[in-house]
Amino acid sequence: MSTGDGRPAGYIPRMSHEGYHESVDLLPEATKDFHRAIESLIEELEAVDWYQQRADVTKEETLRAVLLHNRNEEVEHAMMTLEWLRRRDPKIDETARMFLFADGEITQIEAIKKAAMAAGEAGSGGAPAGPGAGSASPSSLGIGSLRSR
Questions:
Q1: Average pLDDT over residues 48-70
Q2: Residue of 7, 24, 28, 45 with fewest CB within 10 Å of its CB?
Q3: How far is the first Cα of the chain from the last one, in angstroms, to the nearest whole number?
Q4: Taking the model in full, what pTM does it have?
């Protein structure tokens, strides 16, 4: 039986990000886990938005405090999930290191960092430029130590 528009009875429309786009039987477990994490990240960020909206409109101060507490918990969950994704995807890691915690105009960060890298490579025979460059730990943002040596 169908709904009259070619879809089977019981069809529930989904957002494009929901579900798999390829046969789940063909996907490796790592891809399924990655998808689960992305879905979870989306849900956590939606929850942040919902709690913020609710907190903004309530007139009851105690409820506002509870809603903002819940919102902040969802931010924590989102960041934990984003970190899980970053640790497993080199491009997410590279891009996070480029943009997160960087100073300056967001839309200019990539061009500025690429120009600085090119200038450093040209001036030092390909070695990273500046004190501490190249000694950044894997968990740093790649800027090396800011402490005096």
A1: 98
A2: 28
A3: 75
A4: 0.68
